[in-house]
Design a protein that fits this description.
Elements: H1 6-23, E1 28-34, H2 37-44, H3 46-63, E2 69-74, E3 77-82, H4 93-113, E4 116-118, E5 121-123, E6 127-133, H5 140-156, E7 162-164, H6 168-191, E8 198-207, E9 213-224, E10 228-230, H7 232-242, H8 244-266, E11 274-278, H9 281-284, H10 288-300, E12 307-312, H11 321-332, E13 336-342, H12 350-354, E14 359-362, H13 364-367, H14 379-390, E15 393-396, H15 402-410, E16 415-416, E17 425-426, H16 430-436
Parallel strand pairs: 6-7, 9-11, 11-12, 12-13, 13-14, 14-15, 15-16
Antiparallel strand pairs: 1-3, 1-6, 2-3, 4-5, 8-9, 8-16, 8-17, 9-10
Helix pairs in contact: 1-5, 2-3, 3-4, 6-7, 6-8, 7-8, 8-10
The protein binds ligand C2E and magnesium ion (2 copies).
The site of one magnesium ion (MG) has 4 residues, from strand 13.
Length: about 450
């Protein structure tokens, strides 16, 4: 990348701290980490990964002043030192410096979003940035750690954004570390066949015309001894980052298939009701997913055509040959593939042509204004049209009102899911749902 390394960067930060103490100016450090860099490296290859790092370095340079320092701190991490992030000497140097640095961070995030030509294709890069304003009482290690902690928070709050460091963040990091330790222990117990602290809840997906339940989505929860029932958005990201999702995901697949067979043995209504399981990016990146799915089907004896795997579209940014082959191998097992949260993430539709998709789930955000007093977005209708043209089924997610339900039915949407039909429920409550025809 031809830019300074960590050692040089630390040295510059040291000098900036000394200068800040003298001049009263508050310099700031930005810590930038590329989101999902591993997916680029794994999917497009190391050469493409290196190309991307150079592009990022260039774009960072273009956004800052020549007196500022951009450095590669290692892996996919960059550090930026803004010598004078406040506009001028004022009474609130720290606040002004933070605001100035935030402005720079915004420009960096926007600049990286522009298409990056790597590995013969174009990708859009998302990055998470932590900002620490330099306090003359701290040393360079403190400053870098603070910016790192803030970057961590930016990642945790959904990636692709920045956070300014605050001292309370250290507490949050400690709590996250203890959550991670407990999660690891829980997943290890699961893998060892001991009692699982995880449970699956199930939410029906029904025919909008008849209310008949066609499929059931498995949604994982963590039964934590002191925190209670922890929702997936609080631990799935940790499981992904740490790789624990591989083992946890294997358990989820096995349990969902086993449970579906159990309903089949309990209720004639369950005979051809399918199950859908969410698959995370990290799972899809491992070749082992194919054998895990095969094992879950084999052990449970579930008919493959009753299993649907849901993936969010951001996963499919990587359209490498390896990924296509993996999706093909999953299809060859006889399972169905669905795109979750369709329309909410990646905005290229090219993958729809190349991936063997059976089902699109329209993101809740497109459903919210249907059948209500506000002007409705034409996008729900457009996605339904897209589904028809492609010959894939469409599910509307997050239906909360009778108005949304009937509007979607009128628009010709085949399947729906949402609190209006049923919230996710424990396994024992499912047979009753299969008889009740929720929503109809
Ligand atoms: P998702 O796959 O898009 O699942 C739908 C989420 O929306 C669920 O939240 C569900 O309870 C909620 N939902 C359903 N109907 C409505 C509605 O009418 N209104 C509103 N406001 N929300 C509704 P949940 O269970 O908290 O799961 C959140 C996300 O966590 C899931 O989004 C999925 O991305 C992830 N997740 C859940 N279970 C698993 C799993 O077993 N494996 C993986 N990898 N991810 C999972
Ligand atoms: Mg889902
Ligand atoms: Mg969804």
């Amino acid at each position: 990348t031809g830019i300074p390394n960590r050692a040089l960067f630390r040295d510059r930060v040291k000098h900036a701290i000394a200068r800040g103490a003298r001049t009263g100016f508050a310099p700031a450090v930005l810590f930038l980490d590329i989101d999902n860099f591993k997916a680029v490296n794994d999917g497009l290859g190391h050469v493409a990964g290196d190309e991307l790092l150079c592009i990022v370095a260039n774009r960072l340079h273009a956004v800052v002043r020549t007196s500022d320092t951009c450095a590669r701190l290692g892996g996919d991490e960059f550090g930026v030192l803004l010598e004078e992030s406040a506009e001028g000497p004022g009474t609130d140097q720290v606040g002004d410096a933070a605001a100035g640095a935030a402005h720079v961070a915004e420009r960096m995030i926007a600049s990286l979003k522009r298409p990056c030509p790597v590995g013969g294709t174009e990708i859009s890069v998302s990055a998470s940035i932590g900002i620490a304003v330099i306090d003359p009482s701290e040393d360079d290690i403190d400053v870098l750690r603070n910016a790192d902690v803030a970057m961590y928070r930016a990642k945790a709050s959904g990636k692709g954004c920045y956070q300014v460091f605050e001292p309370t963040m250290h507490e949050a990091v400690r709590s996250r570390l203890s959550l991670e330790t407990e999660l690891r222990r829980g997943v290890e117990n699961c893998a060892a066949g001991a009692a699982s602290p995880f449970v699956l809840h199930y939410q029906p997906i029904a025919s909008l015309a008849t209310g008949e339940v066609k499929t059931i989505e498995a949604l994982v929860r963590w039964q934590h001894p002191t925190r209670g029932l922890v929702p997936p958005l609080e631990f799935i990201p940790i499981a992904e980052e740490t790789g624990l999702i591989i083992t946890l995901g294997r358990w989820i697949l096995g349990e969902a298939c086993r449970q579906t067979r159990e309903w089949q043995s309990q209720s004639p209504n369950a005979a051809d009701v399918g199950i859908t399981v969410n698959i995370s990016a990290r799972q899809l990146a491992e070749p082992q997913l194919v054998s895990d799915v095969a094992a879950a089907l084999h052990t449970s004896g579930l008919q493959p055509e009753l299993l649907t795997l849901e993936m969010t579209e951001s996963l499919l940014v990587d359209d490498s040959a390896a990924m296509l082959a993996r999706l093909g191998a999953l299809k060859a097992l006889g399972v169905r593939l669905a795109i979750d949260d369709f329309g909410a993430g990646y905005s290229s539709l090219r993958y729809l042509d190349r991936f063997p998709v059976d089902l699109l789930k329209i993101d809740k955000s497109f459903i919210d204004h249907l059948g209500g007093p506000k002007r409705e977005s034409p996008l729900a209708r457009a996605i339904l049209g897209l589904g028809r043209e492609l010959g894939v089924q469409v599910v509307a997610e997050g239906i909360e009102t009778a108005g949304q339900w009937s509007r979607l039915r009128a628009l010709g949407c085949e399947l729906g899911q949402g609190y209006y039909l049923s919230r996710p429920v424990p396994a024992h409550a499912v047979p009753a749902l299969l008889e009740a025809r929720p929503g109809a």
